[in-house]
From TrEMBL:
<dbReference type="InterPro" id="IPR006843">
    <property type="entry name" value="PAP/fibrillin_dom"/>
</dbReference>
<feature type="domain" description="Plastid lipid-associated protein/fibrillin conserved">
    <location>
        <begin position="90"/>
        <end position="285"/>
    </location>
</feature>
<dbReference type="InterPro" id="IPR039633">
    <property type="entry name" value="PAP"/>
</dbReference>
<dbReference type="Pfam" id="PF04755">
    <property type="entry name" value="PAP_fibrillin"/>
</dbReference>
<keyword id="KW-0809">Transit peptide</keyword>
<keyword id="KW-0934">Plastid</keyword>
<feature type="compositionally biased region" description="Low complexity">
    <location>
        <begin position="1"/>
        <end position="15"/>
    </location>
</feature>
<feature type="region of interest" description="Disordered">
    <location>
        <begin position="1"/>
        <end position="29"/>
    </location>
</feature>
<protein>
    <recommendedName>
        <fullName>Plastid lipid-associated protein/fibrillin conserved domain-containing protein</fullName>
    </recommendedName>
</protein>
<dbReference type="GO" id="GO:0009536">
    <property type="term" value="C:plastid"/>
</dbReference>
<comment type="similarity">
    <text>Belongs to the PAP/fibrillin family.</text>
</comment>
Amino acid sequence: MAPVSSLLHPPLFSLSPPPPPSAKCKLPSKVHTVHSYSPIPHETRMGRDGSYTHRRQRSAVLRSALDGIYVVEPPSSSPYEEGKTESIASLKLKLLSVVSGLNRGLAASEDDQQKADAAAKDLEAAGGLVDLSKDIDRLQGRWKLIYSSAFSSRTLGGSRPGPPTGRLLPITLGQVFQRIDVLSKDFDNIVELELGAPWPLQPVELTATLAHKFELVGTAKIKITFEKTTVKTTGNLSQLPPLEVPRIPDALRPPSNTGSGEFEVTYLDADTRVTRGDRSELRVFVLS
């Protein structure tokens, strides 16, 4: 039977006996240590016939030119986990490719919506259930909206009532963001708009911030409650102070505009988030 030390390849320590006292040992006058990372580690496997084979692994190696010691880091994940990660990455790329060029959904046809929905479902299935009760911190940040299925209705309200958008209308939709603070429970929808003006006046650029508070309902559902809307001019009129839009009294609000809403986070990783709204609205965000 092979000794235990032969199973460690390469060896972590030298077990050779020390030189006799009479031997002269000359130490280098100056020591230079060079550390480099190279993806060339390998592992030892014993075959059925008792022989040993070596194969390369995907991990980093720390190599010292002074003593020749190799420290091999263990693989970060199993082949199954690596394959699953690659599958999720490819599905995410497919979804982002489908929704790109759709102007956040304003230019999406019915066929485009079906393709986006199918790609999102594939990614949601591969990613598994989202548990925000454990990973609520992953919501933190400023998220950029790259697709909303409700924008195909050509209104800023999506599936809810809102001002229309279009080339012949004075309102042009810019970028849309969600700013989430998990500590203060702030949930702000930020919309960049451009209001047309008759010649020779310049268009008015502004940013509308719809402030909400949010709470976690269950493991993946979020409920938001509207608080206020603030409008701030940008561009040439950026020196003007922000204006808070008066809130419509609850008694005068239509049933479709209750000031609150719910949506479910169906996929979440370090830079991408997919949600399903309470009116079957699909939204795709990337961390900005």
